[in-house]
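Homework help board

Subject: predicted structure for assignment chain

Our instructor gave us this sequence and asked us to write out the predicted structure in token form, then describe one feature. I got the tokens but I'm not sure how to describe them. Can anyone check?
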Amino acid sequence: MFRKKDIFFKTLEEMSDIIVETVEHFVNAVNGDFPDVAAFAREMKEFEHRGDKCTHIILTELNKTFITPIEREDIMELIKKLDDVLDGIEACASRFEMYQITKADPYIRKFGDCLKRSAQEIKSAIYLLSQKKLLAMQPHCVNINELENEGDDLMRQGIKNLFVNVSDPIELIKHKEIYERLEQTTDSCEDVANTLQSIIMRNS
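My token output:
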């Protein structure tokens, strides 16, 4: 059914690699201090640009390729959802610079760990897609869905903690927005899983 190492799958694999690399960089930063939040934001923007290049390759190839390995709409939806994950992580990183937050709290670090595991599940599933092992993708999709639930719980717990322990309303607003954006990024990971599950249903 699939052509070996088709340009579409090769590029999707590269996109999943970038997502893992991006999240790992984010996690390493939030587990330490931010001596230069502007540099951190620029570095994260570079990851997003690399993802944009993958999206451009996919769209260019779709415009000139008559036969695709899976439905064109599925390829477009998948690259879009993967790009949303990168956009979400970059948006979170940019808030550290905007709000001059130089130290992450425990909830941000837990979100980082959740996103790191989600990114690894996404990469595993994308590589299985390239290997035509569609049914083997399913457990990874389930794991991503469970990690999204974990993200929901973290946001609720984090916001509750803010209102109990943070007296400065400005600091509360800053951290609340970061929690919400991190949770939205776990939603984007779940969107990737849902798209992959649709591909499984159509092609297996």
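Reply (TA_rk): Your tokens look well-formed. For the description, you could write something like this. The radius of gyration is 18 Å. That's the kind of observation they're looking for.
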